[in-house]
Specification:
This protein has about 150 residues and is an all-alpha fold. Helix content is about 65%, strand content about 0%.
């Protein structure tokens, strides 16, 4: 979550610097769009997933929860976790292979500011892999997720 937080702070600062430079000095921050979309947003999204899951912050459909809680051993939650491990494990594997390839060729962006794109490929497999580790922990030690009620 620290990496996600630092990514969010860097996005806020870079967009603010771009806006101030654009409107106050008529000199925008070059490469801000690339930095925000290719680096900071990806890191924010994928590095925040494991912590958000651990805190129960993801949206959950709880209409069947009273019925599923009657199944012994939290079997329904464990089955969902297994599906998550498979899905995010495949995502981590595939994107990890792509990240290795991008590092091998040292891919950069086109344009006036050439960002090293290969660093932006690190966050997806790292975040998905960390989420898989969290899901493996959840498989062994399932926790009760209290549903958050939203007032009407």
């Amino acid at each position: 979550m620290l990496i996600a937080l630092l990514s969010l702070i860097s996005m806020v600062l870079s967009v603010s610097a771009d806006a101030i430079g654009r409107y106050a000095f008529r000199a925008p921050f070059s490469g801000n769009y690339e930095f925000t979309s290719f680096f900071a947003m990806v890191a924010l999204t994928f590095m925040g997933m494991p912590g958000t899951y651990a805190s129960g912050g993801h949206i959950r459909l709880t209409i069947f929860t009273p019925f599923l809680d009657r199944i012994p051993g939290r079997l329904s939650e464990r089955i969902n976790v297994i599906f998550g491990i498979v899905a995010f494990g495949l995502l981590a594997w595939a994107t990890g292979q792509e990240a290795i390839h991008k590092f091998a060729v040292l891919e950069t962006t086109l344009g006036a500011v050439q960002f090293p794109m290969y660093w932006s490929y690190v966050w997806v497999p790292l975040g998905a892999g960390l989420l898989c580790l969290r899901l493996l922990y959840e498989l062994v030690h399932p926790q009760s997720r209290a549903s958050v009620e939203v007032p009407a």
